[in-house]
Write a structure and sequence with these properties.
The chain is an alpha/beta fold. It is built from 11 helices and 16 strands. Helices cover 34% and strands 18% of the residues. Strands 3-2-1-4-5-9-14 form a 7-stranded parallel sheet, sandwiched between helices. A 3-stranded antiparallel sheet has the order 7-6-8, with no helix packed on it. Strand 6 and strand 7 form a beta hairpin. It starts with a strand and ends in a 7-residue tail after the last helix.
Length: 343
Amino acid sequence: MKVLVTGAAGFIGSDVAQTIADEGDDVVAVDLMLPEAHGTSEAPAGTHRLDVRDAVSWSHLLRGVDVVVHQAALVGLGARVADLPSYASHNDVGTAAVLAAMHEAGVGRLVLASSMVVYGEGRYVCAAHGQQRPGPRRTADLEAGRFENACPVCNAPLTWSLVDEDAPVDPRSAYAASKVAQEHYAAAWARQAGGSVVALRYHNVYGPGMPRDTPYSGVAAMFRSSVERGEAPQVFEDGYQMCDFVHVDDVARSNVLATRAVAESAAGFATYNICSGTPISILDVARAVVGDGTPPEVTGRYRVGDVRHIVASPERAQRELGFHAAVGPAEGLAAFRSEPLRV
């Protein structure tokens, strides 16, 4: 197959592009080379430096392409309100431009890099009142150190459970809103253009080549950067937020499986959790990254856009894509202590 990969020089995108190429496919690599993501504006050899929002300038690259793997996006929580236009431009407009260019070129297969942030909070259960959907946590509760979500009926603490792909979307940050928009554009395109889309909802991705400590870095890289400075990693809230950390190599492999699936599927839109299937607390992530170094510091600080628990069900991806994570968080995070980060 011939596969065009957007964001192909990024942390995840570069691994995806290389893994697809290693499978014997012909890869067309494109990337905007945003300095905040790469530390440089110079594209690697073989990568086309371009802005996907300007489809007229690059649509010729779609000739003969079988599948587009759309990784390009501005990532991170959305550190400031002022970031909103950037997320809408790079993620929403960028995706719309890619889809329009694909339709014009007659390319009908898309693998979309989505995210678990589309869910907002995960799935919760009250012992007395069953499944519940808590609203955004109140600032007053966070200030008081009350971090757990409470049952809206009886105010008792809720217990997290696995969230599957049928859970409703409920974005709680600028980045999350933009990822939901990407999915909606792709689903609309699939219906209007008769295309096929596989959207991969990545959970917390880590591994070699992560960007260093910036507002757009993953938390594992932030912990690593603290260790390298000789400082204790700063853990927000009480550290008992439960989540799923998936290794970048597993994410890359999921994209290979998705390109095969979307190439063979009928028109439509499908979503899959891409996760390790092994829940872990943020405090345990910090401890794994630290190893024998300075223990992490639990600060009690919080970010308004953060959710409490989000732990995925891996079942659909296992059943329909044949995806199963090969690297668990215990071994993967231990290895991550010494793996290179992106400058």
